[in-house]
């Protein structure tokens, strides 16, 4: 896996993935940025959310659950000192579908957290305290 990040101006950068997709990152105005896009640490949170949500959807579909929507809300805390690393992270899944089995949703979230989500497992190994929960809604 490869990526490249190029400085544009001030605190703005363009990242390009090995698959050829680009994203702009920017900093706040008080740090030389123009506040026009994601912060790098926000991108990290989005990566964890995308990785874990992908797992949950994949596991639920393989178990023949009729999922119509799934989102994950992520809340994180950072250290007060430099480096301002993440210290805690909570992922709250909101799963909507028809006749969902709670045991299957619980299992999907647990498997993502413990076995499949490379992003969250990597952060947890680095000392970030990560918790998960879910709620279910009928479509």
UniProtKB/TrEMBL annotation:
It holds the Pfam family OsmC. SUPFAM superfamilies: OsmC-like. It comes from the Bacteria. InterPro entries: KH_dom-like_a/b, OsmC/Ohr_fam, OsmC/Ohrsf. NCBIfam families: PRK10738.1. This is Putative redox protein. It comes from Sinobacterium caligoides.
